[in-house]
Amino acid sequence: MLEVTSTSMELQLGVDFAQIYRESSMCKDKDMLVKRLSIPVPGTSDLHFSTQFPQKFREQFKACLWKQCLSYWRTPSYNLVRMVFITVACIFFGVLFWQKGNINHINDQQGLITILGCMYGTTLFSGINNCQSVMPFVSVERSVVYRERFAGMYSPWAYSFAQVAMEIPYVLVQVVIFMLIAYPMIGYEWTAAKFFWFMYTMLCTLFYFLYLGMMIVSLTPNIQIASILASMFYTLQNLMSGFIVPAPQIPKWWIWLYYISPMSWTLNVFFTTQFGDHDDRMIDVFGETKSVAAFMRDYFGFRRDLLPLAAVALAAFPVLFAALFGYNISKLNFQRR
């Protein structure tokens, strides 16, 4: 049928099949039938559904969560790789900074800056890996979501919440691996408060890096542009975290970037909870004697009195990025077919 109705066949026969149909009685009969069927029968009402989706939001979320659970379990290239990566990274950093976190081994500013750099490096290294690894996975999932959303199978918010919730157990496993391997090898203090604060900070940090990657993918049409935007974020995190350029040395007109940088709050909690309470531990700092807490407060600008605010900020960043991910998925559509 395609061969005999093609444009080349029309040219060969010298006819226009579309024009022939428009001038035929069949076309006129069909037009009259369409007009007649377009007028509803008296006494009838339009077809109406009380809800947009056949199931309630709770059922949609449960279905999406189960689908994501199976999808994650069947994707070892994503989940198994990041578990192996965090394990190898923990062993590497543990060997490299063996017992450097023991406060009794810190005698001068170089020893303190070394262990602070360890915190900075392990956090940034693990966070960037999570962000980079989740972006291709979410990019592929988004194409499936477009098709299933247009079919009316579920709300985009149900998918977004399921995607966000599905990451929680995997990130928890990553944090547990870090706390069991790297924490004792580096020599951090074994007290309940310090252990809890370190675990809480690491958990929030991995979450906001992960949800940031998901949010960037939802904002961009393809993975290439998403990777470029993510690299810009990494650069800002490096510069405005308060470690490479301490907060007191950041120009006044750029200090707002320091306060909205998630990494600055991460390092504030890390530094002040591990070493910010050692007012009695004196070290040599550029030729003078200072306490560890005073050096961090004067040189880096990290203050222990900001700990409650920093803890709230750390919890707020993952929530913000996850909410923006859900909003972008529901409002933006980059599919062109």
UniProtKB/TrEMBL annotation:
Ranges where the ABC-2 type transporter transmembrane domain occurs: 59-275
Q: Which domain of life is it from?
A: Eukaryota
Q: What is the lineage of its organism?
A: Eukaryota, Viridiplantae, Streptophyta, Embryophyta, Tracheophyta
| Molecular function, one GO term | ABC-type transporter activity
Main location, first listed in the record:
membrane
As given in the record, the signal peptide range reads none
Transmembrane stretches in the record are: 80-98, 110-128, 157-183, 195-217, 223-246, 253-271, 306-327
Q: Would the keyword Mitochondrion turn up in this protein's UniProt record?
A: no
Q: GO CC terms for this protein? A: plasma membrane
Q: Which InterPro entries match?
A: ABC2_TM
Q: What is this protein called?
A: ABC-2 type transporter transmembrane domain-containing protein
- The organism named in the record is Aegilops tauschii subsp. strangulata
